[in-house]
Write a structure and sequence with these properties.
The protein has two domains: 50 residues; 218 residues, MetI-like (MetI-like fold, Orthogonal Bundle). It contains 13 helices and no strands. It is mainly α. α7 packs antiparallel against α10.
């Protein structure tokens, strides 16, 4: 009787795992399908894009005309460099200043500590685009319109709230014995901060990915703050091939394919740290 019960339990667990994996596989296919579709059609001739959008490129339909147009008719390398510069500098500012603020909020008790935490948490819920008009006026007054610094400052402000919230939760879980031992050895608070950062490395990777994706994919602020030819980003540059009546879809898909590559590369590099950071954050009490 007990053996039959154990067999049924094992069978139920296997069925449950199989159903779970099927659901997860469905979500993966749903998320990956648009990306795969963009890559497939980027290497096809214009007629093949519309006649057989779901078909793989063949010897007859294969074409690199989209990529040739992107590099010959636009300053795409400059757009790429602009996007990389904005993303790298903004992420550096977000991680650096966010980590320092998270350390102060999680480690020290001072008047207004709780109020400051709530104030920063509210920043997660309020989209920064609401203040677009005020931001534009500020950038005009500072003379930063059509400069990469305008985008860097906006994206830094945009990412700080979530970064501080995530890192403060992780830093609060760092064993106090580790920090007290460093203080006993005569380490300064700056040195202790440097010791804690590697401990919360998964959280830093999570923050970097969550910060990079909306910055790289953003079209709103580049269009408003830096639309000139020398400050365009990759996503804004792809708009060059979209017209009111005629659109060069080969070039659009080629540009989008090139824009997707850094995001995929970042995920592949930090995927392990990202998963560790997400699971640790989910299991904290």
């Amino acid at each position: 009787m007990k053996i039959a019960h154990d067999v049924r339990s094992v069978r139920r667990r296997r069925i449950g795992r199989a159903v779970t994996h099927l659901i997860l596989l469905g979500f993966v296919l749903l998320a990956a399908f648009p990306v795969i579709l963009v890559f497939m059609n980027a290497f096809k001739a214009r007629r093949a894009i519309f006649s057989a959008p779901l078909a793989l490129p063949t010897r007859e339909t294969f074409s690199l005309v989209g990529f040739e147009t992107v590099f010959s008719r636009s300053n795409f390398p400059i757009y790429y460099l602009n996007s990389v510069t904005v993303v790298v500098v903004a992420i550096g500012f977000v991680v650096f200043f966010g980590a320092m603020a998270a350390w102060a909020l999680s480690e020290y008790t001072f008047k207004g500590n709780r109020f400051m935490s709530i104030y920063l948490a509210i920043g997660i819920m309020i989209p920064i685009r609401i203040g677009t008009v005020s931001i534009l006026r500020l950038m005009v007054a500072l003379g930063l319109v059509n400069t990469l610094w305008s985008l860097i400052f906006v994206y830094t402000a945009q990412g700080l709230a979530l970064t501080i919230f995530i890192l403060s939760q992780f830093m609060a879980q760092v064993p106090r014995d580790l920090k007290d031992a460093a203080r006993v050895d005569g380490a300064s608070e700056y040195r202790i901060f440097g010791i804690v950062l590697p401990v919360v490395r998964p959280a830093l990777a999570t923050v970097a990915v969550f910060t990079m994706i909306p910055i790289w994919n953003d079209l709103w602020f580049p269009l408003i703050l830096a639309p000139s030819g020398r400050t365009k980003t990759v996503i804004l540059g792809a708009q060059e091939f979209l017209g009111q009546f005629v659109s060069d879809w080969n070039s659009v898909l080629a540009a989008l394919s090139l824009a997707i590559i850094p995001v995929l590369a970042l995920y592949l590099v930090f995927s392990r740290q990202l998963i560790v950071g997400l699971t640790k954050g989910a299991l904290k009490q």
